[in-house]
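Lab notes, practical 5.
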Amino acid sequence: MLAPKRQKYRKQFRGVWRRMAVKGQTLNFANFGLKALEAGWIKDREIEAVRVIFARSTKKLGKFWMRIFPDKPFTKKPPEVTMGAGKGDVAYFVASVTPGRVLFELAGLSPEESRAVLKAAAAKLSVKTKVVSREL
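Output from the prediction step:
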């Protein structure tokens, strides 16, 4: 799974989402991409599942870019543990996403193939997304 190599602090607060994305809302590398429509946390396992879909579909023809990285530790307490006794251990890492953020980009495939691959990738994610394309 993806995880940061090192961190300043082991545990983080959950944080709040207040607005649309202020960075990463345009396609920078490719002609097709997947854009988030709602705020949420995307787990490292979901990002890995999407990476596998892209790697299998692009083979040697295309190229893909992952524009998000799971750098936020998500803590969880074990089941049937009472309140108190501190914060739980880090269970996995998440990428915090706001609406309008471009998550993944895909190039080198035909428009029909690109849309099909991005739809398959969107099914693996826990946030609502839409396929966006660069106006040529």
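Observations recorded by the TA: The longest strand covers residues 89-97. The domain at 32-77+87-133 is CATH 3.90.1170.10 (Aldehyde Oxidoreductase; domain 3).
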